[in-house]
Amino acid sequence: MLHKSRTAATAAVLIAALAAAPAHAWGKKEQNLLKGLAAAAIVGTIIYQSRNNSPAARSYSTQPRYYAAPASRTYQEPTRYKPAPKSSVYSTPAARAFNSYTASERRLIQSRMTDAGYYHGGIDGAFGPMTYRATKALAGDTTGTDQIATVSGAYEFYDLLIR
Questions:
Q1: What CA–CA distance (Å, rounded) separates 67 from 65?
Q2: What's the rounded Cα separation, in Å, for the pair 111 and 85?
Q3: Are 157 and 139 spatial neighbours (Cβ–Cβ below 8 Å)?
Q4: Each residue of 106-142: pLDDT tens digit?
Q5: Which of 22-36, 51-65, 84-98 has the lowest mean pLDDT?
Q6: Are 132 and 94 in contact (CB under 8 A)?
Q7: Which domain of life is it from (predicted)?
Q8: Residue 72 neighbours by CB under 8 Å, 6+ apart
Q9: Are 129 and 89 in contact (CB under 8 A)?
């Protein structure tokens, strides 16, 4: 209501100002000021009315809202994340076969895989993820990954590299 009365008061002041002096007697600045005030009053009224007619303004209610409580309150244990067990490269048949060789044979296997362009790690004789990836890639390109799926097949694969 206050905003409507302000708009009405602004309009009344504008009308009184127009009646007080002829428009042609005013300077250009006074006329532009009057136009600006009239435009501000009109835009303010439009914005005020659009806010009051919005769905959010109409849905507001002074009545309190009551929500029904659930019929029974029981505690339910939350489900917890359980990651799937990961198969470690250290427990694969290829790792078991690799680790059964002597240290010099293991370094020889790694150096042969380096020469073939499959192994890019240090020649340390230790079986790790890089050795496993190289073994799997080389087997996939030559004899097939089915061969290193068993310990006996992995022995055959590594024996071919040592010779």
A1: 7
A2: 32
A3: yes
A4: 999 999 999 999 999 999 999 999 999 999 999 999 8
A5: 51-65
A6: yes
A7: Bacteria
A8: none
A9: yes
